[in-house]
Amino acid sequence: MINLKKLEEMFEEEHEFIQQLFQLYLDEHQSVPQLINAQYSADNRTALFHTLHTLKGALSSLCEESVISDIEKSEIQLKNNLLPSSESINNIITGLNKVSLQIEEFLA
């Protein structure tokens, strides 16, 4: 989940900027869960690593604190040419859906 307090402190409570940041995240990453599923199902480890690594950067900029640890574990496995477990991928996707819901609630 996104640590809103930390994010607000980082951006000095500039709610308009945070709203823009959240909207940009939604616009750019809404289809990422489906992409992760497709790459995982196709055993495309290189593409999956790239997607997860890029996603980790985006989530870090939002002060997200739970999905990132799952992503990092999967990145380590992929660096060692191992496919993460389906449970790990499902945890990431579930976490991403929760982040999107949290953002949508903030923007409402």
Task: Explain what this protein looks like in three dimensions.
The structure is a single chain. With 108 residues, the protein is mainly α. The chain has one domain (4-107): Four Helix Bundle (Hemerythrin (Met), subunit A), CATH 1.20.120. It has six helices and no strands. The protein has helices spanning 4-10, 15-29, 32-41, 45-61, 67-79, 86-107. The longest helix has 22 residues, at 86-107.
Supply the number of helical segments: 6
Amino-to-carboxy terminus distance: 17 Å
What is the strand content?
under 5%
Structural class: mainly alpha
How much is the radius of gyration in Å? 14 Å
When the domains are counted, the total is: 1
Reading off the top of the CATH hierarchy, the class is best stated as: Mainly Alpha
- Write down how many β-strands occur, each being a DSSP E stretch of 2 or more residues: 0
Query: What's the main sheet like?
Result: none
| Chain-averaged pLDDT | 93
Low-confidence stretches: none
Identify the overall geometry: elongated
Give helix % range.
over 70%
Q: How would you spell out the order of helices and strands?
A: HHHHHH
The CATH architecture is Up-down Bundle
CATH topology: Four Helix Bundle (Hemerythrin (Met), subunit A)
